[in-house]
Structures are given as C-alpha cells and as structure tokens.
Design a protein that fits this description.
six-stranded antiparallel beta sheet
Length: 318
C-alpha cells in the first residue's frame, strides 16, 4: 500500500517545532510535504497548489502567528474546498479561526505533545479510512521550549532585584559576575525576540569574543531560510547598505561599508523594494520582494554584462 501524503500548513515562526513533527510523522509511515521542500526558483503559489492537490490530508498547525497568516488561511480554505481531511492541531494558546470553530481539533496544549501526537496519528488514519495503529512512546519529542530568564521575575519585584544582584556579585566575584548576569539577560532578550535584528544587535553590542557570538550567527542563518538573487547596484547606485562584513577570520564585524562590493557572508539591508530573481533563469520570482529594512546574507556576487552587481542571498520571511 502506497504512503498517504500529508501537507503541513504552518507559520514559519514555528519551523523548528514543525520540522520535528514532520520527522515523527514520517516515522509513522506518512509521506509529508511542507514548504521547506520548495526548490529555489520554483513558482511559490503554483507549487503550493500542486502539493495541496496531491495531498491526501492536511495537518493545520495552529499557533498565535499561524492563525494570523493569510497564507495559512488560504491553504486551509483550499483544502476544505477540495473536501480533503483537514486535521487542526493547536500547539499553543491562540484564537481558533471561525471556519474551524466547529471542527474538532487536537489540543496539544491540554493533552500534552506526546498524547496529542498519538491522537493526531489516529485521527489521520480515521480521516484517511485506515486502521488505527499504535504509536510508540517517545515518537514525538518537540523542541525544548526556551526558558524564561529567572532573573526577570526578581526584576519585576523591584527590591528583590537589588538583593539578587548583590548576592550574585558577592558569591560569583563582584564585577565579573555582574557582567555575566547582564550578558545572560541580553542573550535571553535576543532569543525571546528570535529575529535577525535581535541577534544582530547582540553581535553589535558584544563582539566576536562573546561566548554566544557563534550561537547568534547560527540563529541568524536559521532565520535566513529563503534563497534568491537581487540587483545589489550598478555603476552609479546602490540599492542595499552593508551592515556587517566578514573579516579575514570569517567573523562578522559591524561597519557600514557601502563602497566595497559585498562578499560571501556579508549581511546587507535593502534600501528600496528589491525584486527577487531566480538566479538560474534570471526571471523575477512573482510576488517576492525584499522590502526596505529587511536584512539578507550574501552567498555569492557577480557582475552582468550591463555592469549590474548581482548578489545571491539567503533572506528571512519579510
């Protein structure tokens, strides 16, 4: 019997969680597709539509950001309109869309992620008219949730914060302990925001000697999940500004340097709405623009016959 095909509809903020979910579903014998499978240069809308048509069922991941996503709403409506089984799962507290209010969903927030996953698998088998199967314990282990900074609660207490800092200074060695506490709080702020800008700000403040420096770079890379080409500039104009460049050691260094052509690893920011192209066909990728202020990471650079500087980039969701 051929594998049943699942389409996962989700918000990109939940990519880490969904990637783990996809892996667990594949271990249960499902063929799973989600938009990280889209090859660079393919037409986004047509690929999504094609995969929705091929899917036997749709798993809709409900979170605070996905219920606000127009793309997720479109995918949900398309699936319901094609009369395919749509299985919603709620992975955090959020407002369930009106079209799903009367539809039973698997609430991972109350059932727990392991029991919720077992229920999801069984609901999929029921929706696909297949026999239910036992799900081994521990098949689905979601990514660990980032813990809130324990110092923060004391800070909210006012006087308690002063006492805690004094204790840390005395026990851990005065100024060094205070510096470590500040650094940890700033890193916690960066990961709580989980944006390119929050990690870049951390790099700006701390520099390459900070122990979290490499982690900040890695986190930026995870968020830069898309790939395409832009016109960086021509002989007379620049459409981007360089925010970070890589030095001889491969480290990111903060310096706005607009004169030098960027190289691999540099981080640049769009100054104007910039069309994204398929770097193989040179055709515009319909509906895809880098908006002003959005940062991207350079993969490679070349010049065309007209003197345009072309940069292949990784970039985040606008």
């Amino acid at each position: 019997m051929s594998q049943k095909k699942l389409f996962i509809s989700y918000s990109r903020r939940d990519t880490e969680y969904v990637s783990t979910l996809v892996e667990a579903l594949r271990k249960q014998g499902f063929e799973v597709w989600f938009d990280k499978n889209i090859r660079t240069g393919t037409d986004w809308d047509s690929t999504i539509e094609e995969e929705l048509k091929k899917a036997d069922a749709i798993v809709l991941v409900l979170s605070k950001t996905s219920v606000e996503s127009d793309n997720v709403k479109d995918e949900m409506s398309f699936g319901i309109g094609m009369d395919k089984p749509v299985i919603p799962i709620k992975i955090e507290e959020c407002d369930v869309p009106m079209r799903l209010a009367r539809k039973q969903f698997v609430d991972f927030t109350t059932m727990g992620h392991e029991e919720g996953f077992e229920r999801l698998v069984n609901d999929l088998h029921i929706g696909l008219k297949e026999a239910e199967t036992a799900v081994p314990k521990g098949t689905f282990k979601p990514p660990k949730q980032k813990k809130a900074n324990p110092i923060k609660n004391y800070i909210m207490g006012g006087v308690g914060a002063v006492v805690l800092i004094l204790i840390l200074v005395m026990v851990l060695g005065g100024e060094d302990a205070e510096a470590d506490t500040t650094s940890n709080a700033e890193w916690q702020t960066a990961i709580n925001s989980n944006t390119v800008n929050s990690y870049l700000n951390y790099i700006y403040q701390k520099g390459p000697l900070d122990p979290k420096y490499k982690s900040a770079q890695d986190s930026i890379d995870v968020l830069m999940e898309y790939e395409g080409m832009v016109i960086y500039g021509d002989l007379n104009s620049r459409y981007f500004v360089k925010n970070l460049y890589t030095d001889m050691n491969g480290d990111l260094v903060y310096e706005q340097d607009d004169e030098q052509i960027p190289k691999k690893g540099d981080i640049i920011t769009a100054l104007t709405p910039s069309q994204i192209y398929n770097y193989e066909t040179m055709e515009p990728m319909e509906g895809l623009l880098l908006e002003p202020g959005v940062k991207a990471k350079v993969i490679s650079v070349r010049e065309d016959d007209q003197g345009n500087v072309l940069a292949i980039l990784n970039f985040p969701d606008n």
